[in-house]
């Protein structure tokens, strides 16, 4: 994968313009990204290495109710490939929806749950 810094930087500039209009969004976004660092989901680049080529992942915040950061792994780098292009697809992990719905009808009670941070 070739250098993707320009795409990520362009996305950052658009996000910063949005943050200047609404500082509350900036505070929520900063807090969210700091949590990513604390969870070791990302790492900060040392200042001396910022200009080096590397794989950068463009992202932006979505603010329906609470903040959610969306990473764009399908954005093509300068070489024409995206991160998604380079990843091998794994096996299908989800059960067939018709089987799931049919099984729900077999029992008197059904339960659901909300798994925090499931898609991080």
Automatic annotation (TrEMBL):
Superkingdom of origin organism: Eukaryota
The protein's name in its UniProt record: Uncharacterized protein
Species of origin: Trichogramma kaykai
């Amino acid at each position: 994968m070739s250098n993707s810094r320009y795409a990520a930087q362009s996305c950052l500039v658009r996000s910063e313009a949005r943050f200047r209009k609404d500082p509350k969004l900036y505070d929520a976004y900063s807090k969210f990204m700091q949590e990513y660092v604390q969870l070791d989901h990302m790492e900060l680049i040392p200042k001396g290495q910022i200009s080096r080529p590397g794989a950068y992942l463009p992202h932006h915040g979505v603010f329906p109710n609470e903040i959610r950061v969306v990473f764009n792994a399908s954005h093509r780098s300068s070489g024409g490939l995206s991160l998604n292009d380079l990843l091998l697809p794994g096996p299908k992990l989800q059960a067939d929806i018709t089987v799931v719905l049919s099984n729900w009808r077999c029992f008197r009670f059904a339960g659901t749950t909300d798994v925090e941070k499931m898609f991080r």
